[in-house]
Amino acid sequence: METYALLLGSTLSAGTVLAIAALGLLINEKAGIVNLGAEGMMLCAAIAGFAVVVHTHNPWLGFAAGMAAGALMAAFFGVLVIWLNTNQYATGLALSLFGVGFSAFVGIKYVQAKLPQGQSWEIPGLAEIPFVGPALFKHHPMVYFAVFLTFAMVWFLYRTRAGLVLRSVGESPESAHALGYPVRRIRFMAVLAGGALCGLAGSYLSTVYTPLWVEGMVAGRGWIALALTTFATWRPVRVLLGAYLFGGVTMLGFHLQSVGVDVPSQFLSMLQYIAPIVVLAIISRNPAFIRVNMPASIGKPFYPGS
Predict the structure, then answer these.
(1) What is the C-alpha separation between 170 and 300, in angstroms, rounded?
(2) Distance between CA atoms of residues 247 and 257, nearest Å
(3) Membrane spanning segments where (predicted)?
(4) pTM above 0.90, yes or no
(5) Domain annotation for the chain: domains and CATH numbers
């Protein structure tokens, strides 16, 4: 039982990285913007957060640095695609490639660096409950923040006027503009928020989940987070559940290795990438379902003068 409790706990931790990043990308796409630069933003945020913690010994400053790095890169992306009307997909890919190279260059001197001893977290009283305690109540606060963020986003998108305006910009920016809403400004703020959350996910990865810096350590999680938005049909709660599903697949691979299952390690490492492909292939068999849930103007530029 203890093994399964640890496996469940590891699944929640692994899924947190994907959930926070995917929720950030969800905000972008609800406003009609597709940002393929998540991988690069997360890598730059990972090294920014790691470097700040190395020098300050304060993990919360590391999170702030990661969010700032992600937001800065997202701001650059936003100016290009929103005001200069560059192609969203090409610009996002360029941002991702830039982030991979830039983080590797900046992080050279931090490869052997070590972070200060991390604090152990648990919820008093609940953490001692058999099975449930180790599985659910001995996590870093960021794990619980991901759950809170999910339901806060549900409330924002479907219960507030600001959320309604954001969704209307993603559905029909021309109509929102005709009603007097600053479409470009709203999209830019959504891009900034999405970049900050991708940055938070990257800094959590390098300072808490795997407290070290290695070149390319995001290892495709940015792309998986991007796939999660489609997998979840642009619904926050489904994003969270999907993140835990893919996190669980990753942890299952490690668990099978630890118990000596005679399966090549390369195949087990592939599981976290195979799962999104299989799920997306199944979903794609019903394009009508995707069209109903997908923001109508996603990926489309907006020209106020047209």
Answers:
(1) 9
(2) 16
(3) 6-26, 33-54, 60-84, 91-111, 141-158, 188-206, 212-232, 239-257, 263-283
(4) yes
(5) 2-115+133-293 (1.10.3470)
